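[User]
If only I could read backbone structure tokens as easily as an amino acid sequence. I have put the entry right below:
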Amino acid sequence: MKLDQKDIQILKLLQNNARLSNKELAVALDIAPSTCHERLKKLTQKDFFKAFNADLNLKKLGFNIEVLVAVRLKKHEREVVNSFIQKLHSLKGVIRFYHLAGETDFMLHVAVENSNSLRSFIMDELANFSFIDHIESSLIYHDECLHNLSYNDIIH
């Protein structure tokens, strides 16, 4: 599916605020609500949206520390990698993870209540996985999602 300017505008508007109604989108795009609905339906069917999420204020929920944890595995066999991924799904505090190529095998975005919780997460939960070779954590001082990228900024 080739995207036109209206499709790109829909993606950009919803990336900034996924709670916009069809009517609000149609007004912003200066098109009929029925046309907007059909475009949105097609974009959804063609998997242009991975998900519609709420960006939670973690501090309000008691998670005062956010950390990126880099993990390097001893082995890169499919069974080991899959086992580690399964473990990540069971760990409290893991918000998101990335399986990477390069020196770091996994990058975890973790939120915890305090420094003792972070220590416990790393020492008691993560480090007991037998195939971990190296763990390195980096405290996040500030995060910001740059939703203002246009389609042309991303795809050249």
Q: What stands out?
A: The first strand starts at residue 65 and ends at 73.
